[in-house]
């Protein structure tokens, strides 16, 4: 993705988050992104298409950022990987409120965005079950991942509304999620307060 496309997507996320809906015009976006309308139409034929593109890119960036900083032996243990991912995403909402508000506004209501968010957590959940670290019945896996996404979205809302710091919200959510997976509370608390990796420089 080139610089102009990233600027357009970032502008779209800001406007969608600020308005709480897709009630945005191409003129609005052109002004927010500081590009010509023709440039917008070369990147997306409609607001709906741009919403889908920006959503997909955002989720890909979030998951890619987590994967890149946890792609070594220190994060092979599924509970540590999950706790770290939760805390990093909540921290991202603090560092980039527009991203956080977009996910809070649309993460549970837009089916395509919700499905994209579910993918990697489901993979990590399967890895934890296979490794014997989690106790989750097969028929409950999708329900648990839905619960996970709801918990993370709620944590971001708490941060954005000033009710908790990102550290408090991220740690508390990670502990609750791990305990729900039958990780002992003492271990869950230790994993949820471990030092976080440094985010990739291009975020």
Automatic annotation (TrEMBL):
A Pfam family that the UniProt record links to this protein: TetR_C_40
Domain of life from the UniProt record: Bacteria
InterPro entries, sorted: Homeodomain-like_sf, HTH-type_TetR-like_transc_reg, HTH_TetR, TetR_C_40
Keyword DNA-binding: yes
Signal peptide (from-to): none
Keywords: DNA-binding, Membrane, Transcription, Transcription regulation, Transmembrane, Transmembrane helix
Transmembrane segments: 142-160
DNA-binding region extent: 25-44
Domain HTH tetR-type span(s) in chain numbering: 2-62
PANTHER family documented for this protein: HTH-TYPE TRANSCRIPTIONAL REGULATOR BETI, HTH-TYPE TRANSCRIPTIONAL REGULATOR RUTR
Name recorded for this polypeptide: HTH tetR-type domain-containing protein
Upper lineage: Bacteria, Bacillati, Actinomycetota, Actinomycetes, Pseudonocardiales
């Amino acid at each position: 993705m080139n610089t102009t496309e990233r600027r357009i997507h970032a502008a779209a996320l800001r406007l969608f988050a600020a308005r709480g809906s897709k009630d945005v015009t191409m003129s609005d976006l052109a002004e927010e992104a500081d590009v010509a309308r023709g440039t917008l139409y070369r990147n997306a034929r409609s607001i709906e298409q741009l919403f889908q593109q920006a959503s997909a890119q955002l989720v890909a960036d979030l998951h890619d950022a987590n994967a890149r900083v946890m792609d070594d032996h220190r994060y092979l243990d599924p509970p540590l990987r999950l706790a770290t991912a939760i805390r990093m995403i909540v921290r991202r909402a603090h560092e980039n409120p527009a991203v956080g508000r977009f996910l809070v506004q649309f993460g549970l209501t837009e089916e395509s965005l919700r499905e994209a968010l579910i993918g990697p957590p489901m993979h990590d959940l399967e890895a934890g079950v296979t490794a014997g670290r989690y106790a989750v019945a097969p028929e409950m896996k999708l329900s648990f991942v839905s619960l996970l996404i709801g918990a993370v979205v709620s944590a971001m809302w708490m941060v954005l509304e000033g009710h908790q710091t990102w550290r408090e919200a991220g740690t508390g959510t990670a502990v609750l999620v791990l305990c729900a997976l039958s990780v002992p509370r003492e271990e869950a608390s230790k994993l949820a307060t471990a030092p976080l990796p440094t985010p990739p420089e291009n975020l």
